[in-house]
């Protein structure tokens, strides 16, 4: 399956390699570099590269290319998904999966990679199990280890590995038993020039932070589970019960995890909470820029953290604008205009207007740039999804429960 | 850790000034360490010291070198010594080093082997597993025999984790020495039979690497794999699904074989409910092809499809893709639509995943039959400016494939916005896409053409150039009445500089010169003037244009043509010189009109077939979907193409397993429920079914009734319910089948005996109303234990032999503590404690008659104690008596033929039993709370006798004490289906508390519970194996009538006990 892994930073330096079978020379990465040179941006490199003897499958995350080398037929998604899982694990262990973190913790990284794959086939990828096998670094433990000479490695097999709930470790104890659920929905939308919706749908996730002792068995039910069009579950969720009763029944992993992600179909009308009135015009040597943002269907909630970004055409030299609210920046190199609006006050709509200066001599661009919008609305799930109740079985104590709703913009794009 | 990190940084600093090796990155971010030899001496010293932290420090630095790809091989000897280190972290790092360099230093590596061999015997499973891992990873051919031995030991290891590691070792060993293949296949066979979810994934992986063509190894395990699939870890799921796809292709019939006829009507699967459309399809098929034998899906085929369907909900994209390809390749076309939703969901994921998914979707959309399933999701494929270029192109491809008369306007509007993008390549791709839409949908050709002509005045030259090329192709398809476009384009030739576009214009003007008779010669003139500065491709087209004009309009262009030909004659490019020579012969032969000259017009102005604008993904469906080969559109090494479905199905009985599997029963039960349905499909079937109909009709009606009830109450149920539910589903989704009946009629009888008691109590249960009122209370406390039980049940129902958990329970209590997740004892209520039995029967039952035993007789007796072997076992005392004069030696238990899940702990062998002597031994049997007999053999030195022990239901219990309050509390939870009651009349002489108590204690191993009420007797016990509570209440009324109530989750036990208590109490 996966033969070797190379980590390459943005400078093109192979700073770590790991081989699970025989050693493959790092010169195989030359094929990758060749491909990389052809691409305009790091994201544009084709994830699957075929070379005469090897197949290179890579992901690009945290400014690092993780290049896996395979020699035989293997489902590409298998490798890609695994690589992402590796980076997720790094992020989980070190706080971020970037180059510095990896280099600072190279021994743990190596031990993790050793544990995650055996002969190129995934062995243990569940974060809870890995954390029992190899303890994540923290200052206290480092001090203790230096003094007592104990190590970061467990010498017994994590119990979870063998049980039917491999995602949960045994013997969890908390003084405050709490379970928090964040229902986060993102609106993906394309709005056209006239303000009508070309495409909109809602993607939601429920992220949990569960700190409960023992082996709790939770049941989460919704007021309106039918609106969920398509769902994918954490392995802990009992599929049968969802099928028959539309409730989520699960023994949760310990700590933070994503319980489900769901999709609310575009067939349903999506309430678009903000509107953007753009008025951008170019003429020879300059142009006008005038954008107003306003709340639309917010169900009485405040729209906050509104940020508007707009990638201007290359010919734009500078912009001279005045916002009625918030601050704006224009990056003259990347030609990106960012307007941090903050909260929208429905009485006084935020507006940003001013002049655009273009490179002299070059023709004005014929198309207007697209505007992308970010916003957040607290305490509202735009799809209307509502958690009905959370019941816990199997443990005697009374947990503290909390549900939070948040709606934000996903890929929210306004064409002008 | 900070030590390691710190020193590593220090290393970096110290070496910042020094010159690094040329090939290793010498950037500031570069090198962990330099391969400095002095440093190595330093490291050697540290490794030789006797301080663990120094060693650790050294090893960390060495691993740093390995990680960086620096050569650290000269440290091998120093490192390998430390393989015996007590410090686990040092040891781990030595392992890492060893695996990396052992291949290069084989002799030295052998020094470490003994350590691993020792570790393989370690009581700690983690150490055993890691020893096996390293041993199998060091790639030293000399040790192949040792590895083989270790592997064979590990395959039967009781820790599933070690067995999993063993499965991983198989491909390693194979790559080291392919000669071992046969032996390794035997090992794989053993592993495939493993029932643990942890192991099967890896076992199938080994199977796929070694012998993917040995389908015969899969037959026996097929149903098990299907059933375990949901619980296997995600990576294993991918491998198993891929393997099963291939398996299904070789073993089952093509579910779409009749689609060939009923093809046209099926363009609307989309969101339709699976079952509806399936039934529809079958109806349809029946109507259309009455003479043909209707296709019946093999139940195993259906099983696979059903069990993989939930995995579409997996969070792992690889699993979803694997299921999608499985459905694409082996499911009936009407069901493939299911996967669209899941695939579209993956588009929200990382861009690499998007890329792979989109390219698979692109292939799917080229296939006309399945294209429809993505139409509802059209808008999900709209391009966003943030998409990377390869994702954008794939989305365009998909949008183009999906374009139909209805959606084209939306798509074209969308394309219009793409054309204004600043990315030139993307614009070009969009224009090509518009061209393809125009050519495939004739309604919009005109619109598209106009749109494209509009683009000709675009300021961006690339847009114009690409439009020209596309317009050329479109015009070629319908050249009539487009002279104004050609004129327009001819004018463009002055300004446009992109060679491909210029060439296209020239070709078009030449081809349709009769439509622009005035412009064509003028264009040629301009071109001739600039001939030498043109690109090669343009020059060739100028030659072409010249030749064509020379033929059609020699008066005006003859000279121009000559001029061009002369220029070409001295061109640098040999293609152009060749072309010029060739054309000259055709249009203006030097001497007399040559034979070719006569046909020049035909040759140059023949009508040319219009180009077909096809998707570049058109031929990709030859590859298995989701495979690497599909991705790169070429055969990857190790790719084996999916075989075609066989014309006739191979023998389906090969998948039957001797032990009646719980799932096999399920299929049959379901079958009994739906005989009518089958008859509906074909007449032949009806005949074969009709006999069974009459027998089954009574049971089927009652069964289907109980099924629907059990669904109401499903959550409060455990194992038996699960079965019900499954069978229920099966009845719904599977489109019935007749072929299975003959294949497994033997196992039917077994299944009946087991399922009968299950269903009976359900029939007696009060109406669902009362249940639902009781439910919330029930759930409150018991929920978790029940659900846990469900999990356990999963493994025990699907695994006919002892699950590792129970095996470990028996064998080593220390390991059992590792398995708390599984532990059954967790759910014991603290207030309830096991007590000594009230009554121990002294009567023993005959196990082996002395006649049959040739003088050796054996009796058995239930001692009602706690079994010394395991708490989940019923202790049984065996007494052997030797009725002969000569001693009998070596009495022991031989082969055991136990029901699924049962275990039997045998007694130590009796060396000799003297003539006339007798001896008692005790054994433990875990009956898994069923009254299935335990069959086994008693062996003596030279004979074997088959015997069986059938436990009375009362012996499956263990007495417990509890308070009255507890009793009532527990009883209130066990209502509904878990309650069973009956009436009996007690003979008056026995109607006293003493008799009743003793009678019930005699009958069952339960303990009386204090009762404050007169005439109310309570007894409590728990089942030995499952530990579920069982409560007996006897209420004696005035007229000597007694009402008996038994509450227990195990409904079978419940109902049997009621019956027995009834009999016992009414005895005179």
Plain-language structure description:
The complex is a heterodimer of chains A (416) and B (1068). Chain A starts with a strand and ends with a strand. Chain A folds into three domains: 2-148, Beta-Lactamase (2-Layer Sandwich), CATH 3.30.450.60; 178-270 and 380-414, Immunoglobulin-like (Sandwich), CATH 2.60.40; 274-378, Mu homology domain, subdomain B (Immunoglobulin-like), CATH 2.60.40.1170. Chain A is 18% helix and 42% strand. In chain A, the strands form five sheets. A nine-stranded mixed beta sheet of chain A has the order 11-13-9-8-23-21-16-19-18, with no helix packed on it. Chain A has a five-stranded antiparallel beta sheet with strand order 2-1-5-4-3. Chain A has helices spanning 29-38, 76-94, 99-104, 106-116, 127-133, 139-148, 159-162, 239-245; strands spanning 4-9, 14-19, 48-50, 55-61, 64-70, 117-118, 121-122, 178-191, 197-211, 217-222, 230-233, 247-250, 255-264, 274-283, 286-295, 303-311, 316-323, 327-331, 336-342, 351-358, 371-378, 387-393, 400-414. By secondary structure, chain A is α+β, with helices and mostly antiparallel strands. Helices cover 54% and strands 9% of the residues of chain B. Residues 1-37, 260-291 and 660-830 of chain B have low confidence and may be disordered. In chain B, a hairpin with a 4-residue loop joins β9 and β10 (944-949). In chain B, α15 packs parallel to α18 (317-330) and α23 runs parallel beside α25 (424-440). Among the domains of chain B are: 41-252, Leucine-rich Repeat Variant (Alpha Horseshoe), CATH 1.25.10.10; 833-951, Immunoglobulin-like, CATH 2.60.40; 955-1066, TATA-Binding Protein, CATH 3.30.310. Chain B has 1068 residues and is α+β, with helices and mostly antiparallel strands. In chain B, strands 1, 11, 12, 13, 14, 15 and 16 form a seven-stranded antiparallel beta sheet that branches. Chain B has a five-stranded antiparallel beta sheet with strand order 2-3-4-8-6, with no helix packed on it. The N and C termini of chain B lie far apart (80 Å). Chain B is elongated and about 135 Å long. Chain B is built from 48 helices and 16 strands. Classes of the chains: A alpha+beta (416), B alpha+beta (1068).
């Amino acid at each position: 399956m996966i033969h070797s892994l190379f980590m390459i930073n943005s400078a093109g330096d192979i700073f770590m390699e790991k081989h699970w079978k025989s050693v493959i020379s790092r010169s195989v990465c030359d094929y990758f570099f060749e491909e990389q040179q052809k691409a305009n941006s790091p994201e544009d490199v084709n994830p699957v590269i075929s070379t005469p003897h090897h197949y290179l499958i890579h992901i690009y995350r945290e400014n690092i290319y993780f290049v896996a080398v395979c020699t035989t037929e293997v489902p590409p998604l298998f490798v890609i998904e695994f690589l992402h899982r590796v980076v997720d694990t790094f992020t989980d262990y070190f706080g971020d999966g970037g180059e510095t973190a990896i280099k600072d913790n190279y021994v743990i990284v190596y031990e993790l990679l050793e544990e995650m794959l055996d002969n190129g086939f995934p062995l243990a990828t569940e974060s809870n199990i890995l954390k029992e096998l190899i303890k994540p670094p923290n200052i206290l433990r480092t001090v203790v280890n230096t003094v007592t000479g104990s190590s970061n490695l467990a010498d017994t097999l994590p119990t979870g590995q063998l049980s039917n709930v491999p995602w949960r470790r045994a013997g969890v104890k908390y003084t405050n038993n709490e379970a928090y659920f964040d229902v986060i929905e993102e609106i993906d939308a394309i709005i056209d020039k006239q303000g009508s919706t070309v495409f909109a749908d809602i993607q939601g996730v429920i992220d949990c932070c569960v700190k409960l002792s023992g082996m709790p068995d939770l049941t989460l039910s919704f007021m309106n589970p039918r609106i969920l069009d398509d769902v994918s579950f954490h392995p802990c969720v009992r599929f049968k019960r969802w099928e028959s009763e539309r409730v989520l029944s699960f023994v949760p992993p310990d700590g933070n995890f994503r319980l489900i992600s769901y999709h609310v179909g575009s067939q349903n009308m999506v309430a678009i909470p903000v509107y953007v009135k753009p008025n951008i015009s170019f003429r020879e040597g300059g142009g006008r820029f005038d954008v107003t943002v306003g709340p639309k269907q917010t169900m009485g909630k405040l729209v906050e953290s509104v940020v508007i970004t707009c990638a201007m055409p290359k010919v734009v030299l500078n912009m001279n604008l005045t916002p009625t609210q918030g601050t704006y920046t224009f990056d003259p190199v990347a030609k990106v205009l960012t307007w941090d609006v903050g909260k929208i006050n429905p009485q006084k709509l935020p507006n940003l207007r001013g002049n655009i200066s273009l490179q002299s001599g070059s023709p004005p661009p014929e198309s207007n740039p697209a505007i992308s919008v970010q916003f957040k609305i607290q305490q509202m799930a735009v799809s209307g999804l509502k958690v009905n109740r959370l019941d816990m079985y199997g443990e005697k104590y009374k947990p503290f429960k909390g549900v939070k709703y948040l709606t934000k913009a996903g890929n929210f794009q306004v064409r002008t | 850790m900070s030590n390691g990190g710190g020193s590593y940084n220090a290393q970096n600093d110290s070496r910042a000034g020094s010159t690094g090796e040329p090939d290793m990155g010498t950037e500031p971010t570069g090198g962990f360490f330099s391969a400095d030899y002095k440093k190595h001496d330093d490291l050697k010293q540290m490794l030789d010291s006797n301080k663990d932290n120094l060693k650790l420090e050294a090893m960390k630095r060495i691993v740093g070198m390995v990680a960086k790809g620096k050569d650290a091989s000269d440290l091998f000897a120093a490192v390998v010594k430390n393989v015996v280190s007590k410090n686990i972290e040092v040891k781990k790092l030595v392992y890492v080093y060893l695996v990396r360099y052992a291949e290069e230093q084989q002799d030295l590596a052998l020094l470490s082997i003994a350590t691993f061999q020792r570790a393989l015997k370690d009581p700690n499973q983690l150490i055993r597993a890691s020893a096996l891992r390293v041993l199998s990873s060091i790639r030293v051919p000399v040790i192949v025999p040792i590895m083989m031995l270790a592997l064979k030991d590990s395959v039967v290891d009781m820790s599933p984790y070690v067995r999993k590691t063993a499965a991983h070792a198989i491909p390693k060993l194979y790559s080291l020495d392919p000669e071992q293949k046969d032996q390794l296949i035997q090992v794989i066979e053993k592993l495939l039979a493993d029932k643990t979810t942890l192991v099967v994934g890896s076992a199938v992986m080994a199977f796929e690497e070694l012998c993917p063509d040995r389908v015969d190894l899969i037959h026996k395990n097929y149903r098990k794999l299907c059933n375990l699939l949901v619980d296997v870890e995600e990576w294993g799921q991918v491998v198993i699904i891929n393997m099963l796809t291939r398996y299904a292709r070789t073993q089952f019939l093509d579910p779409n074989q009749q689609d060939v006829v009923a093809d046209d009507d099926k363009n609307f699967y989309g969101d339709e409910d699976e079952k509806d459309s399936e039934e529809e399809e079958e109806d349809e098929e029946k109507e259309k092809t009455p003479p043909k034998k209707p296709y019946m899906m093999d139940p195993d085929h259906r099983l696979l499809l059903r069990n993989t369907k939930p995995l579409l909900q997996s969070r792992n994209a690889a699993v979803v893709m694997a299921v999608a390809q499985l459905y694409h390749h082996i499911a009936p076309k009407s069901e493939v639509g299911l996967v669209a939703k899941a695939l579209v969901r993956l588009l929200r994921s990382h861009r690499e995943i998007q890329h792979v998914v989109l390219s698979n979707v692109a292939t799917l959309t080229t296939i006309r039959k399945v294209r429809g399933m993505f139409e509802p999701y059209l808008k999900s494929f709209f391009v966003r400016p943030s998409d990377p270029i390869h994702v954008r192109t794939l989305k365009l491809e998909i949008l183009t494939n999906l374009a139909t008369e209805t959606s084209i306007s939306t798509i074209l509007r969308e394309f219009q916005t793409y054309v204004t993008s600043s990315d030139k390549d993307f614009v070009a791709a969009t224009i090509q896409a518009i061209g393809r839409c125009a050519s495939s949908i004739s309604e919009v050709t005109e619109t598209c053409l106009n749109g494209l002509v509009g683009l000709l005045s675009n300021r961006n030259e690339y847009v114009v150039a690409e439009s020209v090329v596309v317009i050329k192709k479109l015009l070629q398809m319908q050249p009539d009445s487009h002279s104004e476009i050609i004129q327009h384009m001819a004018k463009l030739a002055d300004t446009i500089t992109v060679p491909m576009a210029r060439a296209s214009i020239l070709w078009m003007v030449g081809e349709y010169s009769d439509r622009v008779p005035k412009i064509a010669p003028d264009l040629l003139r301009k071109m001739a003037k600039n001939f030498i500065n043109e690109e090669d491709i343009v020059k060739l087209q100028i030659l072409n244009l010249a030749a064509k004009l020379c033929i059609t309009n020699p008066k005006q262009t003859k000279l121009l043509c000559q001029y061009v030909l002369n220029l070409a004659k001295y061109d640098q490019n040999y293609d152009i010189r060749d072309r010029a020579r060739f054309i000259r012969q055709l249009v203006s032969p030097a001497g007399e009109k040559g034979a070719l000259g006569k046909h020049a017009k035909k040759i140059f102005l023949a009508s040319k077939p219009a180009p077909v604008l096809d998707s570049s993904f058109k031929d990709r469906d030859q590859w298995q979907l989701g495979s690497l080969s599909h991705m790169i559109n070429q055969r990857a090494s190790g790719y084996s193409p999916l075989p075609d479905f066989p014309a006739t199905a191979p023998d389906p009985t090969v998948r039957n397993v001797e032990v009646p599997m719980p799932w096999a029963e399920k299929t049959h039960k379901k079958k009994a429920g739906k005989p009518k349905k089958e008859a509906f499909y074909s007449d032949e079937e009806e005949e074969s079914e009709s006999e069974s109909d009459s027998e089954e009709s009574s049971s089927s009606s009652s069964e289907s009734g109980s099924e629907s009830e059990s669904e109401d109450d499903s959550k409060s149920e455990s194992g038996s319910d699960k079965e019900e539910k499954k069978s229920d589903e099966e009845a719904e989704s599977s489109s019935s089948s007749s072929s299975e009946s003959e294949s497994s009629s033997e196992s039917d009888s077994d299944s009946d005996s087991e399922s009968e008691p299950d269903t009976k109590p359900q029939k007696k249960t009060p109406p669902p109303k009362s249940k639902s009122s009781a439910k919330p209370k029930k759930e409150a406390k018991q929920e978790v234990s029940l659900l846990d039980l469900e999990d356990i049940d999963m493994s025990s129902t699907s695994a006919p032999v002892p699950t590792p958990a129970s095996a470990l329970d028996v064998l080593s209590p220390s390991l059992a503590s590792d398995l708390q997740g599984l532990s059954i004892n967790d759910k014991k209520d603290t207030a309830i404690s096991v007590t000594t039995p009230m009554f121990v029967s002294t009567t023993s039952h005959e196990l082996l008659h002395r006649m049959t035993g040739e003088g050796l007789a054996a009796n058995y007796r239930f001692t009602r104690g706690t079994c010394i072997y395991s708490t989940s076992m019923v202790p049984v005392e065996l007494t052997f008596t030797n009725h002969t004069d000569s001693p009998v030696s070596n009495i022991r238990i031989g082969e055991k033929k136990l029901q699924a899940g049962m275990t039997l702990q045998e007694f130590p062998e009796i060396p000799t039993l003297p003539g006339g002597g007798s001896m008692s031994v005790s054994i433990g049997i875990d009956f898994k709370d069923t009254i299935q007999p335990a069959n086994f053999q008693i062996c003596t030195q030279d004979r074997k006798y088959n015997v069986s022990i059938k436990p009375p239901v009362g012996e499956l219990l263990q007495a417990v004490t509890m308070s009255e309050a507890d009793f009532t509390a527990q009883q209130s939870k066990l209502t509904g289906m878990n309650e069973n009651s009956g009436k009996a009349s007690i003979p008056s002489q026995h109607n006293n508390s003493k008799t009743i108590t003793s009678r019930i204690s005699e009958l069952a191993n339960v303990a009386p519970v204090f009762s404050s009420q007169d005439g109310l007797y309570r007894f409590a016990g728990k089942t030995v194996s499952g530990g579920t509570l069982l409560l007996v209440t006897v209420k004696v009324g005035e007229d000597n009538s007694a009402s008996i109530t038994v509450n227990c989750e195990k409904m079978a036990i419940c109902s049997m006990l009621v019956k027995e208590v009834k009999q016992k109490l009414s005895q005179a």
